[in-house]
Fold:
Amino acid sequence: MNNFFSIKNVADLPELLASALEVKKNPLGSLELGKNKTLGLIFFNPSLRTRLSSQKAAYNLGMNVITKNVGSDGWTLESRDGAVMDGGAAEHVTDAAKVISQYCDVIGIRCFAGLQDRIEDYQETVLRGFMKHATVPVINLESSTLHPLQSFADLITIETFKKVKRPKVVLTWAPHPRALPQAVANSFVEWMLQADVDFVLTHPPGYELAPKYETKAGVEYDQEKALEGADFVYAKNWSAFGEYGEILPTEKNWTITQEKMNLTKEGKFMHCLPVRRNVIVTDEVLDGPNAIHIEQSANRVVSIQTIIKELLT
Ligand code: SN0
Structure:
């Protein structure tokens, strides 16, 4: 593995999952691997889990960590090829990526979608720019359209909680007061379609994901029908892809409640966090015995540690 941008960088998913379960069992098993190596974490956007789990994973591998919040205290970076830089941006990703490569052995980048220009967001100019110009491996810490470390942690979580060989996993859209990216949903679809699960996607009309994800997954527009017999219910909001970045009016309430969870097979409730309580999901579900969002967050250490190991080996 040279970079970790998406599941496409994973040569053998069952093997990667097995490696993650090893890391989970024995987190300090490779303390020498990262000795005298530095992980650079570059944040264009806020983070709680990604930042702390990445640091923790690096320390578990004996690495040093440098963190930079370019979004708040860095030069504004330009990412478009050939840009005439007579505006606000002081430095180009081409140069920044090469510079950061002088200080770090692996670079993680978080850069959310702007949700203004669909073509620009889906071109992934920032992550692709870093991957093109960095001279060390680059890890996607949530880019404009993908969040593979989250999906990998989700898969590890499902693997450790499943009671049947091929569980039913439902990704349901849920409401949110702000327009959010499609990244978590896009990645989750990609990973679930490769995993040994029965995957069902449900969302209100108008919230179709980009065709390359939606078409492969198919959709069940009836949320209650989708939830029937589910082993895992993953709730997540995203803004529209068609009417790009918009929040559309929906006919019914898509909040996950205990009544809806009762349709499942004692399904586990999942969310990547941060979660808007009593908007995405009720307190009753989130504080109930079947919520596993905290275990998911614990597995964020496992997912990035497994990926760093791959990149260093
Ligand atoms: C991000 C998203 O992509 O949906 C990160 C999730 C891991 N979520 C948010 O930005 C939530 C912000 C909010 O106001 O609730």
Observations:
- The two ends are 9 Å apart (CA to CA).
- Residues 293-312 form the longest helix (20 residues).
- The pocket of N-(3-carboxypropanoyl)-L-norvaline is lined by residues 150, 178, 180-181, 183-184, 272, 274, 276 (CB under 6 Å).
